[in-house]
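Work package 3, deliverable 3.1, input record:
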Amino acid sequence: MADTDWPGCGKSLKGVILDMCGVLYDSGEGGGVAIPGSIEAVKKLKASDLQLRFCTNETQLNREAFVDKLKSLGFDISVSEVFSPAPAAVAVLKERGFRPHLLVYDGLLPEFDSVDKTNPNCVVIGDAAEKFTYQNLNEAFRVLIGLEKPVLFSLGGGRYYKEGDGLALDVGAYMKALEYACDLKAEVVGKPSPTFFQSVLNDMGLQPHEALMIGDDLVNDVGGAQNCGMKGLQVRTGKYRWVMF
Amino acid sequence: MADTDWPGCGKSLKGVILDMCGVLYDSGEGGGVAIPGSIEAVKKLKASDLQLRFCTNETQLNREAFVDKLKSLGFDISVSEVFSPAPAAVAVLKERGFRPHLLVYDGLLPEFDSVDKTNPNCVVIGDAAEKFTYQNLNEAFRVLIGLEKPVLFSLGGGRYYKEGDGLALDVGAYMKALEYACDLKAEVVGKPSPTFFQSVLNDMGLQPHEALMIGDDLVNDVGGAQNCGMKGLQVRTGKYRWVMF
């Protein structure tokens, strides 16, 4: 807990936002495994007076499939409680007239069904994992470098995350590669974007100081929340276990 | 020509350093093609009083194979005239006791034959092209993140280069990805590193103001040379044609 005011936090606390990967479950083959105690913790929070939302930078599955995965692991959770970058990006694309070239995981594509993707005037990248091939990265790069005003949206900006067999590069690393090649600054949609956290607060009808964000990422979860005026708490599961700070 | 002192440069000029890809030839399938006029230009420079060296960030072939390729395109050129990042990196690795994990193109591997690669304590990346797979990048990342003091050497830091069918991401983009993921700053071996340019000047026995660097890359060739006190001249072939500044 980075904030020394923590003992006084409980009085005003009205809502909790939970990161998912590394807090509720560890990813891996077959959908991953629930972290011991996390299913019960969600149950207790739901039984309490606190509001509860889930906030993830997961971009390998659309929300429906993602929630189904969490349910199969034993979590009591519904789509309306989950905030993820893809729907937020779709709203931004439509609002600003962008037609994306997508470099995302196949499982995420349905989220973009309603978006015009002809004659792209921007690039959207998510955690494409094994779809981050040399060819696909060059293709995204060529779209960007061919635009008069290149615009890159990144679904989250994470450095890495824990997979079943170790750590894997996250979308943020590939975002930096394209930023450097095209001499641009990407727009991050998802954590730690203040806009993204604010949309969760709006949904709960809470002020920032009334909410606590719990995650395993010091920058995207804890730092992002603190930048918005929320409390942030880092768990010692997920990537925390793998890299000591 | 960015330097307004150019008209006075000829008087003191004693040596010319030529970039290769995009200046002498365009890369592509089958080894690429010579740029019209470049074979004759090299001949004229060799017949003049000026010293001539070739300075490349080429890291897909070892120097012998690279020079053979240039010869087959019609250039009068020898291995001793060519300066490339891999031999410079080998010298640094040996001097500082580093055992590299290599993420480089297969053709470059012979350059590292004399280097101990067991139990790696650093990572070296070159323009690995299609070897920049998700798996290989994760592997390099895991080596770095597992080190107490992660050290990354990058053979050049270019953003992109021209291939036969368009532009391709260069090693610098992947360097930035690993820098971000591991929160480190890579050491660039090759252009635009001042150490690298100085080794070419030393070989010619010239002072910086006596040499002119000619290349198609505004940062790595022209800027790098100017940072060392040399003159820099940007040609309008190679990547210049593809991206207007």
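The longest strand of chain A covers residues 51-55.
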